[in-house]
Structure formats: structure tokens, C-alpha cells
Amino acid sequence: MTTRRTRPAPRPPEGTPPRAELARQARAVLADAVRIAHWAAGTPGPGTAAPLAAHALERAATALELSPAQVRAGWDRARLAGLVELHGDTARPGWRLRAWDRDDSAVLRGWVALFDAWSLVHAAPEGIEAGAVAEAVEAVPQVLSLLQLSAGPVTVPALLDLLGQRVAELHEERCEVPLGPGRTAPAGSVAPAETAADQAAAGAGPARSADLNALLLDWALEGLAAVGALTLGKGQATLTPLGNWAVWVKLEQICVAAQSPAGNIEQSAADMLLGCARLTPGPARDEYRAWLAARTVGSAVAELLAVARGEDALLRGLAFEALRVVGAPAEPEVRAVLAEPSLRPYALLWLAEYEGNDPDDAQDVLSREEATWLWVDTAAAVADHGETGLLVRHLDSAVQGTVPALLDEVRAVGHPRTVQVLVALAAAHPDPALAKAVRRAAFQVHTGGA
Hints:
With about 450 residues, this protein is mainly alpha-helical. It is about 65% helix and about 5% strand. It has helices spanning about 1-5, 20-30, 30-40, 55-65, 70-80, 95-100, 105-115, 120, 130-150, 155-175, 195-200, 205-225, 240-260, 270-275, 280-295, 295-310, 315-325, 330-335, 345-355, 370-385, 390-395, 405-415, 420-430, 430-445; strands spanning about 85, 90-95, 155, 230-235, 235-240.
């Protein structure tokens, strides 16, 4: 781990503008979105939820002197870039909007969030199966890598060839070799490839496949151009400075992870989090970013939340630390788990910090019961993975202030690990009288006594 902590900061490719200039370009791309976000945040009452209500759309178009189509597009970008947050029917300014004029890092993170969501900004062509669209989205990073490595214009035919190769690789990885009409594959075997005659008879010949790839490539290039990542010329595409920088950052994250002694980029979420458990916060966040860069945002967030629902309290806390690195794209999924008692305290803290609250004050959003539940869950993580001294010191973080009050509320909160936590605390505490009281509380919880 010493190598990772002392690794010098990588330098962007020669010719990359300074961060201040990149931030200026990102502000230009999101200028309409920022105006609409300010308007929505300052507009009282309902009607600014997604999609933008018709009457709100008309008011915004009039107030901002934009067309309804421009307002709708800017509103979508504002949400995807984390400039506005929706709370029921009300829009509130996101932390990035508050920091927009003074914090270049916040601006660049907002633009990267929009860049990651390019496929949502530009609707896919109608009549194409969702699976084909998903394959194109999964293949786009290779297209972007070619554009970045070329450091200049790349012809559309070259990009189309790469897209087709990547889609074919995805089919091969999934053993999706097509069958001809009337054929079935023997159990446990891989189906033979279709002949040209079979494909033509099935109405899905090579020409049609190439046409589909061409249509999807045009859609992807237009979507990336719409978020300011590239420019389109006659039969060619070129990354903008912003797009070139963003692709370099993501490639660098993957390279950093590949050089990690733990090799976390290829691990499951649970193994990756365990591998980061003993890292200090900075290196741990680097590992999270690298792991996330190698996955789609949706699948990564789903995997982290699945780990958080498990029995290991340490992984639950670390999963939400990794979700903090995800930022705005994780907000809907995190908000959705508020109804789950085991995740609610973590989700409330995540949302409070996401909305701009100081981490030291974020605990104020928890009710007494939620804070007590979180205290027990954290104690369980310490008991399972930490040192006994940490468990004793953990007593000082309880909101109750006194051990008798803490024990009363811990018994009532109903955490499934309460007995084990109290037994471990009693065994670790050096005060015999206090240890006895804690053991008595553990016995009462175990037997259902008062």
C-alpha cells in the first residue's frame, strides 16, 4: 500500500487545458441548465418535478426567454448534473449549484455526471430493442478510448468497425451465438453460427446488423456531442478538450486500480470493500473511484446496496462510503432505501451530506431511535473487525450521555446484533460494575425480559 500512497499525481495528456479553463468550458455547456436550476430553486410551490409540469414549463420559458424545448432539455441536464434536487413536488438547489461560481471541482464533477448520463440526455431511436441499445452503451467506452488515443479526428467507418467488434465480443462473452431457423442447440453445447442464407431467411442478415450498428453509433455520437464531449464533422468525430480530459481521467482510474496490489478492480463489491477496509480515507476513495470506473453506474450502485443489505455491518458502512464517491447518480437509489430500517440511518446521513450539510452536523437528521440503531450497527462492525479498545471508546459516541440510558434505548431499538454487541462490550470494558450492568442488559434482551 506504500506504493499507492506515494504514487505521484498523474499528469494529463500534453495540450490538456488547465482545470480553470476546463471548468469554464463546462460552465458554458451547462449555462442553460444553471439558469433553469436557479429559476426552479427560486420558484415556490409544486410543479417543478420531473418531468417538468406543463404550466411550470411555460412559466420558465417566459421568464428565461427560452423555447419550451430548451427549458425541457436544460431541466433534464440540471437534474443529471446534480444542480437541482427533487423533494416530492419541490425542487431545491443542489450543493453543486451553490458552489457553481466558486468551485471549479464542483463544476467539473457536475459535468462528468452529465457526461456519464449521455444516453439519458439523447433519447435512443424508436423501434430498437432495449438490449441492442444497452450493448451500444456498453461498447461506447471503447469508442471513446480510440478517440482519446488518436488525439484528433477519427472517421466514422473506423468507429463503426470498433463498435461492431465490441458488440460481437459482448455476444461471444454471453455465448449468444445465433441459431438458424428451426434449429436448436444441444444441451450444454454452443450453437453453430448462422450461414448467410440462414440469416437472410430469418430477415436478420449482415447488412441489417451493420445498419443497426450504424444507427446506434450515430445516436451515441450525437448524444456525446449534446453533452459537449465531442464535435462532429463530415464523416468524422473529435473529442473536445472536456471529453478528452474526462476519458483520460477514467482510463487513469482503471490503470491505477490495475496497479493496485489488491487488484480491486476485478473484485466483487464485498471483496473490494474488504480490501479497502484498512486503507486511510484518501486511498480508499481512489480504490472506490477505480472500481466504479470499470462498471456502469447502475450496476455498481445496485451491487453496493446489495452488500449493504447483508449481515456485515462493516461492509454496510463502507458501501455507503463508496456511494458517496458515486454522488448524484446514486441519489434516487439511496432515497429509495429510506424505507428499509437497516439502511435508513446510513441513507439519511448520505442524503444530508449530499444536500450540502456539514458531515459533523449530519447526525442531526437522525431521530434518537435511528441514532441508537446506528450506534449498535457500528458497534457490531467494531466487534467483528476492530480492536476491543475501539469498542470501549465507542461508548463515548452514544447520544444518550449515560450508560444506563444507552442500555435502556439499545434494548428497545431491536437491532438483531444487540445481544452480541452487549456481550462483547461487557467482555472488553475494564470497569467491573459497568461490565456487569452491560451483561445484565444482554441477558434481558436475550431472554425477552424488561
